[in-house]
Amino acid sequence: MCSPFDWNRVQYIIVLSGFQRYMKLRLPTNLDVKNKKVLVRVDYNVPLKKTKDGWQVEDDQRIISSLETIKFLQKNHAKIILITHLGRPKGKFKIGLSSQPVAKYLTQKLGIKTNFINECVGAKVKQAINQLSAGDILLLENLRFHVQEKKNDKKFAKQLATLADIYINEAFSSSHRAHASTEGITHYLPSFAGFGLQKEISTLHKLMTEPKHPFLIIVGGAKISDKIGALENLLQIADGVLVGGAVANNFLKAQGIETHKSYLQDTPADLKKEGVNFIKLADELIQETKTEKILKDGYIPLSKIIYPVDVVAAASPDSTKTQIIDLTHDMKDSTHDKNLMYLDIGPKTIKLYQELISQAGSVFWNGPMGYFEKAPFKKGTIKIAQALAKSKAKTIVGGGDTVDVINDLNLKNDFTYVSTAGGASLVFLAGQKLRALKPLTIDTY
User: Fold this and answer.
1) Residue-wise pLDDT tens digits, 395-406
2) What is the pTM of this model?
3) Are 318 and 369 found together in one domain?
C-alpha cells in the first residue's frame, strides 16, 4: 500500500499494463542544502512580449510553481543559482529569448530580488556566484544559447556542475528530455527533486490511481502521435474519452467517415517517422473498447471513445466562410466538400461533451478542440473550458495551448490543477520513464 503523503519522502504507485512500478523521489532536506551553493534547474520558458520598456513576462505560472523550493533554500541560507531554457534559439543569442526579463519580473513583480548574468558557464559566472550572500538568487542566461545543452554534452554538463555543491530539478515540464541541465548534470552533483516537480508527479499519480468516477479524458490538439501513449494507458482506468481537434480526424477516418483535406498523420513521411499507422491504431482502440460503455444521464449507454458527431469546416484555417457538417448522416459530397478541412467540433458535439462533463467525477484535459488560434474555430475549445470550470468534478488540465486558453478566459482558478507541463505529463501518463527523473529516484523495483 502507498504510505501517507510525506513532503520529504514519498512513494508513488503507477499502474502500467497490469503491473505496478514503484518510484521514490529523493527530495532535499535542510541538511542537504544548508549554507550550500545550490543549482536549481527551473523551467522559466515563459511567454515574453515586447513593450516600449523592453521584453516582459506575460504568464508567470511556471515561475510561481518554483517558489516553494526557492523559499526553502533561502530559509536554509543557500546561495541559489537558477538555470533555465527559453524558447528555441538553436544555439544562438536572441534578444527576445534572454532570461533577463524573468529576473526583472521576480524582482519587480514578485518582490524576490534576483540578480542576473548574461552567461551560464565560465569564470564570469563563478565570480558572480562567489559574490552572492546567503539566500541571494542569481539567474543565469538562457541555456539554449549553447547548442551543447540539447545535445546533453558531457563537457557542458560538467561546466554547469562546477558552479554548485547541490543540484535540484524543479523543471518537470523538461524532465522527459535528457539534456545537459536535466540529466547530464546529475552524474556530477548530488541531485534532488524540487517540491514543485514533486507536486506535479503527485497530482498525476493520484489521477491515475485514485480518480473519482466517472473519469473522463478529453484529448485534442493537432498530433495524435503526441497523445496516443497516454490515451492507451489511461483507457485502462477511464470511463470515457472525448476526442476533438485534429486528433479526432484519425478516429473519424478509422470509422469510414470522410475527412476530406483535414489534417491527419497518415502520409508516407509520417509513417516512416513514427513507425505507426495512427488510423489503424485508432480503429484498434475503438474495437478494443466497443463492449465498454459510459452512461449518459446514468442510463443511456454510449461508446467509451466518443468522437465528434458534427464539425465546423472550412476551405482552410484562414477562411472566414464556414459550414457545419453533421457526421451522423450520409453525406453527399460535392466538389466543394472535397476541399474542406474539419477545424472545430460542432454545436451538437459541444452539447454532448458539456452534458458528459457535468456528470463527471474527475476530468483530465489536454489539447484544444479545434484550430483555436483563429476566431471561427475557437468556440468548441472555449465551451469545453467553460463547462469544465463550472463542473463539480476534479479537473486537471495540461498542455501549453490548453493552458493558454484557460488563462485568456481568466478561468485558471476554476480548475483543480493546471499543470505546467505538456509533453512531460503525457509521457508520464503513458507510463513511460522520464529520463531526467531516473537519477532523482531512491530506488526502482
Assistant:
1) 999 888 888 899
2) 0.85
3) yes
